[in-house]
Amino acid sequence: MLVLEDVHTHYGKIEALHGVSVEVKKGEIVSLIGANGAGKTTLLMTVCGNPQATSGRIILQGRDITREPTATIMRSGISIVPEGRRVFSGLTVEENLHMGGFFNTKAEIRKSQDHVYELFPRLKEREHQRAGTMSGGEQQMLAIGRALMSKPNMIILDEPSLGLAPLVIKQIFEIIGHLREEGITVFLVEQNAHQALNLADRGYVLETGKIRLHDTGKNLLANPDVQNAYLGG
Amino acid sequence: MAAHNLKHALFCAIVTLIVAYPILGFNLVSSGTDIILEGATTQTVISVLLAAVVVFLFQLFRDNIMALLGKAPALNPLANRQPMEQSKRLKLESTILTLIIIGALFWPFFVSRGSVDLATLVLIYIMLALGLNVVVGLAGLLDLGYVAFYAVGAYTFALLSQYYGVSFWFALPIGALLAALFGLVLGFPVLRLRGDYLAIVTLGFGEIIRILLNNMTSLTGGPNGIGGIPDPTLFGMEFGRRVKEEGNTSFHETFGIAYSSEHKIIFLYLIALVLAVFTALVIRRLMRMPVGRAWEALREDEIAARSLGLSRTSVKLSAFTIGAFFAGFAGTVFASKQGFISPESFVFLESAIVLAIVVLGGMGSQLGVILAAIAVTILPELAREFSEYRMLIFGAAMVLMMVWRPQGLMPMRRIHIELEKQE
After folding, report:
1. pLDDT surpassing 90 at residue B210
2. Which of B65, B77, B156, B194 has the highest CB neighbour number within 10 Å of its CB?
């Protein structure tokens, strides 16, 4: 589905990713964990083409997207839920969802909208409410719903648990699990290592711009190094 | 008692003294070849002191006064009303707008020549403000050099008519398209910029255009400007007393009515009215189309908009280009109305005034922007009897406006786009 081969990314002269290779197979949930500043978000942004990788290759569904502009990549069956949700706060829930299906026909939008409301009944209740007036958890649901509107094959989530209450985090992770059942490939980037690895088929540990470890989610959870560094011993 | 306000009140009173005394007190009097600075008269000193005392007392008892005011029953009968339903509101709005337009069509035949002339200027400002509203209000790109596109439109017409004898009706689309092209060209370097940086670059662009026009003396006549710009014609009929161009007829002879210089003024007004209505309708339509939503999305959150696959380049460029297009329109009409243009007409202050109109009207709201354009253009004219204090009144009105209604005269109400219900 998504393959990163020896990807290097620079911010100006500073190299943030030192040759990262990651593979996400179809139908999997893959978690990427790492501390602050390890380069998790940089990795995601590189996939989206902003900034572009300075060397290496990124292949999405068999197509090399390394040099493609962000707008093209984001219309190729991939969706991202950006860090910090970033819903359009002045727009209503419904309008936010419609923005997610910007390049689809009205009939498609209507269908995906019904589907999103099925997944998140809460959003249906708040259909005409301004997104900015909702709670963090609801906004996160909306951000995920908006990303689903374009009917992606793969969805990338950047820190979906950021700033949310434990109960809400649990709900969000349940929904992510549900997405896999629908056949959507999930690439999850998290600081909340325990839950992210628990859910994941496979996991990667990123440290200062390099992949340190790579294993199944269960094995990583059991790994003493990971436990020490990310799971609080 | 308001002891805690004492320091603040004293400070305010002193500021009043410092500001008011030199402005009102000092007088420059010319005596022969010299200019003498005269001190304040006793009367002025007393009134300045009185003003300071009033400011001091008001600031001292500010809390009490405000509390009393708060207790007063709401004077605004509209304050507590419920917001109207969208369908109802839209219907009401379009009815009112149609009535206003019909009124505006017949109005010039009953008023003085001066008012019609002023109204034409108002309409030109409405076009400018509606165009800038796309860039600033909808797309959220702060453009301080908007007057450049206005200048491009005006100079296109002036130069084309001077060198090639092109008439108003041909120059109108050419001027607008050329301005749009300039908008596109300016758009490229500023794509990556946001906020303050964008404002500075566009400000620079506005100045570049003005200085170019000022210095390309051989082509544009420099500071001398270009005169003799022809008036628009109506199907080959001219509005002058005598026909200037061969093949044309004159309006008053064709219709067998007495010549009146007012015909031309009214005709120009009607052209400006039609173009302003056209501008408003086109932009209103654009706002409801996907591109309009894309502008808003980009303004609200650039990262989110891009994550949905919107191209930052095309969305920003489209806003710049469309905004510039209508400025070109306004410029062509302006050149035709004035008959003479020079770089003097396209200084930064013009950009600032148009921007002020957009902000006062309520960013993104078309009706608000139109009302603000009327107010901002007419207010200085109405205040003319206050002569030297007229800009002071204008400034004070703006400050008060921003204090009481920071969201503008008529804040933008978003039009909800609903999918038709499934059968």
Report:
1. yes
2. B156
B246: confidence class by pLDDT, cuts 50, 70, 90: low
Strand extents, DSSP E, B321-389: none
**Shortest CA distance from A81: residue in chain B:** B307
8 Å CB contact of B300 and A82: no
pLDDT value at position B78?
56
**Rounded Cα distance, B401 and B408, in Å:** 8
The pTM of the full predicted model, rounded to 2 decimals, is 0.82
Topology adopted by domain B93-404: ABC transporter involved in vitamin B12 uptake, BtuC (1.10.3470)
- Which of B138, B308, B318 best tests the A interface by mutation, with the highest count of A CBs <10 A? B308
Q: Does B421 touch chain A (CB under 8 A)?
A: no
- Please answer yes or no on whether A74 and B414 come within 8 Å at the CB atom: no
Among B377, B302, B389, B312, smallest CA distance to B118 is for B377
Q: Name every residue whose Cβ is closer than 8 Å to that of residue B395 and which is 6 or more positions away in sequence.
A: none
Q: Is B344 exposed, middle or buried (0-12, 13-18, 19+ CB in 10 A)?
A: exposed
- At B251-273, the pLDDT tens digits run 777 777 777 777 888 889 999 99
Locate B269 and state its tokens: 């007004």
Q: Tell me how far apart the terminal alpha carbons of chain B are, to the nearest angstrom.
A: 68
Query: 3-state SS of B161-206?
Result: HHHHCCCHHHHHHHHHHHHHHHHHHHHHHHCCCCHHHHHHHHHHHH
CB A178, CB A141: distance < 8 Å: no
Q: Do B301 and A71 touch (CB under 8 A)?
A: no
Q: What is the pLDDT of residue B414?
A: 65
HSE at residue B86, side-chain half, CA atoms within 13 A, is: 7
Of residues B90 and A222, more confidently modeled:
A222
Residue with token string 């059968």: B423
Mean pLDDT in residue range A133-155? 93
Whether B146 shows a pLDDT value over 90: the answer reads yes
Contact assignment for B300 to A89 by CB distance below 8 Å:
yes
Share of chain A above pLDDT 70, in %: 99
Asked whether the beta carbons of residue A88 and residue B307 sit closer than 8 angstroms, the reply is no
Give the closest residue to B356 by CA, choosing from B132, B89, B85.
B132
Residue B346 is given by DSSP the state G
Using alpha carbons, select from B100, B72, B77, B24 the residue that is nearest to residue B366. B100
Of B301, B314, B419, the CB nearest to A86: B301
Type of residue numbered A228: N
Q: In this structure, are strands A78-81 and B237-238 parallel, antiparallel, or unpaired?
A: unpaired
CA distance B75 to A37: 57
pLDDT computed for residue B423 by the predictor = 43
The whole-angstrom separation of Cα A197 and Cα A93 is 31
pLDDT at B417: 57
